[in-house]
Amino acid sequence: MAKDTKERILAAALEMFSEKGYDGTNIRELTASLGLVKSSMYRHFIKICGNI
After folding, report:
1. Distance CA 25, CA 27 (A)
2. Measured between alpha carbons, how far is 38 from 18 in angstroms, rounded to an integer?
3. 7-37 pLDDT, tens per residue?
């Protein structure tokens, strides 16, 4: 499940970066587009990266 979530996050981020650019993309819109809240996104990446 974590791998699916990571892939969904990365795909959505890539799409937003392509449409709005890096500076035009924000975490609030990214999480909303995925049906997530910011805290769950941060927790997800802390588990993956382990050192944020």
Report:
1. 7
2. 21
3. 888 899 999 999 999 999 988 899 999 998 8
